[in-house]
User: What shape does this take?
Amino acid sequence: MMKQTKDNFQNNAFNYLDQLRSCFTESNISLIKELSDNLLDAWINENNVFICGNGGSAANASHLANDFNYGIGSAKQGKQIPGMKVEALGSNIAITTCLANDIGYQNIYSNQLLVKGNKNDLLIALSGSGNSPNILNAIETGNQLGIKTFAILGFDGGKAKDLARFPIHFNINDMQISEDIQLLVGHICMQWLYKNKPDKGKIINRISLFNNSLFK
Assistant: This one.
């Protein structure tokens, strides 16, 4: 019985990993490269990067914000420089609960973009279904503000697939794999950015200040 249980578990685990690996194609890898290029451009020009999601995707947004704020500029390879201006829009519980209570959960991200967002900033929306109202409102508001709207999506992509200017869609009908993919895409971008730190643009002045700080 123990051996059968172990075999069933291993089969299930390898099946899960095979499904995860099969989601990545040359086509969506090229879209991930496009996201990486736009993140690098935002880093160079000190544009804001906003990330949002719900549930596990909200946790992934916070995780990736940490990677883009600090990890990409750390000194394990090359010199240490400041990371990018990035915010996970669901991370401030006071703002999130205030907006949800006063103007509705569907507006918790779009309202923040109206306050903080500027043309040529970047939005990364994380969604399994692509149909959450607060995600759709955030993308629509981003489009109206001239923000570059990316969406990392699972299942059939939902309404967000057509609404986002740069959809990165993975056709997988599994929420856990969809959430894993969000982090994998973010980490692919993070490692590429880490190896291609900027040496031009507005960030240069901040790098000079950074190198003269306590963190040099």
Q: What stands out?
A: The beta strands are 48-52, 85-88, 122-127, 148-153, 166-169. The chain has one domain: 2-211.
